[in-house]
Amino acid sequence: MLWFSVVVGPAVILALWSLRGERKRAEYVAAAMTALDEPPAPSLPPVTIIVPVTRSTPELAETLRFLAAQDYPDFELIVVAPGADFLAPGVLPTIVKVTLAGVGGRTTLLQAGIRAARRGAEVFAFGAPSGQVSARWLRALVAPLADPRVGAATAFRWYTPDPPTFWSLVRSAWNAVIAGRFGPGATDFVWDGAMAITKASFFAARLQECRTDLTVAVRDAHLLIAFAPGAMVACPGRVTAREFLAQAGCEMSQARRHYPRLWWSALVSHIIYCGAMLAAVIAIASGNRGAEWAIVVLFGLGMLKGANRATLAKAQLPDWKTWFDRYSWTTTFWVPLATWIWLYILISSLRQIKEPKSLWNKL
Questions:
Q1: pLDDT by residue (tens digit) across 142-189?
Q2: Which candidate, 276, 260, 254, 259, places its Cα nearest to that of 339?
Q3: Which residues contact 146 (CB under 8 A, 6 or more apart)?
Q4: pLDDT above 50: residue 280
Q5: Distance between CA 339 and CA 345 in Å, rounded?
Q6: Contact at 8 Å (CB) between 148 and 137?
Q7: Chain-centroid distance, C-alpha 31
Q8: Is the pLDDT of residue 211 over 70?
Q9: Closest C-alpha to 33, from 319, 315, 234
Q10: Helix axes 289-316, 260-285, angle to 10 degrees
Q11: Torsion over CA of 346, 348, 352 and 358, rounded to 10 degrees?
């Protein structure tokens, strides 16, 4: 059937094309994690970690405990909040320096954090007020900055709900697709929940003025954004269907605004994938035996990619091995479901959202 070949053929080619570079990505992650097994060098640059807190959350105490336990020779941890009532008693580890920025949004918080950083800091690192990191998180995040071509280093999150719910695992499988884009070479964007930038690059790009998107600012300074394996953030929270779809829709709306090339690429790809699945099912119902093999190939390639994403994430988050052993199968076997959910979210994100233009808006 000609129409079947026209629809399914491109999907199979696209699935094969998506596997390119997986070996290099695995080698890159393995090399970075091996380097982290070495004791930290005393010559590592002094770092200021800044965590903006816009609301008090139950996860904050646990997040700060992980950030305060970094295996790094010289760092300070600054928590910036609008007021003392945003920080519940007992939340802060003893090493945390608190800065109260007063009334204002995230821009105000980040500017206050930069001003509060000690004079000797050579690197600014930014973390989110929720999520858990390994003791080597900061070393991993700083490592790519040793390359003078790199302006910023970044990692990404991996949702590790425990105990999980159905929609929490769906969110994890959906999010894994984004995490799977990070690898060697220039990275598409900076994720604010785990990023580091040298002080010199920060001020050279005039980021303190908060006038443009952080990714754009780094690239305008003719610098690269590098992925930092080992700086992944485990996010154990759970969500309902409504919470997940609202969050994902908002993030994809922001992606459409800030990274239109990536957004359009994702939309076209998922239209092709979902169209091929639907065409294959119709062809199978009509007695086309070739369609059965086509859908096996299509699903198999997608699941192979999903399994590799989980394998590399597990290597970067060894402290969460138990979770991956129990639940990472969803990243593999829920690929068809996640593909349709991706299509729904991308289409729903066509609705514009109103957001400030500050580069710190997404922090």
A1: 999 999 889 899 999 999 998 999 999 999 999 999 999 999 988 889
A2: 276
A3: none
A4: yes
A5: 10
A6: no
A7: 20
A8: no
A9: 315
A10: 140
A11: -50
Q: Where are the beta strands (DSSP E) in 42-156?
A: 47-52, 75-81, 96-100, 123-127, 150-154
Going by the DSSP 8-state scheme, the letter that residue 197 receives in this structure is: E
Report how far residue 178's alpha carbon sits from residue 342's, in angstroms, rounded to the nearest whole number.
11
Classified as helix, coil or strand, 10 is helix
Phi, psi of 159 (to 5 degrees): -75, 125
Secondary structure class of 191 (helix, strand, coil) = coil
Which residues are CB-neighbours of 58 under 8 A, at least 6 positions away?
A: none
Q: Rounded to 5 degrees, what are φ and ψ at 119?
A: -60, -35
- Cβ-proximal residues to 21 (8 Å cutoff; 6+ apart), any chain: 183, 184
Query: Residue length, the chain?
Result: 363
* 161 CB-side CA count, 13 A: 18
Coil, strand or helix at 235: strand
Q: Tokens representing 252?
A: 């994809």
Q: pTM of whole model > 0.85?
A: yes
Question: How high is the pLDDT of residue 358?
Answer: 43
Interaxial angle between packed helices 289-316 and 335-348, expressed in degrees from 0 to 180 and rounded to the nearest 10: 80
Q: 39-241 is classed in which CATH architecture? A: Alpha-Beta Complex (3.90)
Q: What is the pLDDT of residues 41-63, one digit of tens each?
A: 888 999 999 998 887 777 888 89
Do the beta carbons of residue 54 and residue 82 sit within 8 Å? yes
Spatial CA neighbour of 71 closest among 113, 96, 98, 41: 41
Interatomic CA distance for residues 152 and 129, integer angstroms: 20
Residues in Cβ contact with 147 at an 8 Å cutoff, skipping those fewer than 6 apart: 224, 226
Query: 235 pairs with which residues across the strands?
Result: 159
Q: Three-class SS string for 125-146?
A: EEECCCCECCCCHHHHHHHHHH
Residue 104 pLDDT: 67
Domain positions in the chain: 39-241
> Can you tell me the mean pLDDT for 95-115?
80
Q: What's the token pair of residue 56?
A: 């008090």
With CA atoms as reference, report the closest residue to 239 among 315, 159, 333, 313: 159
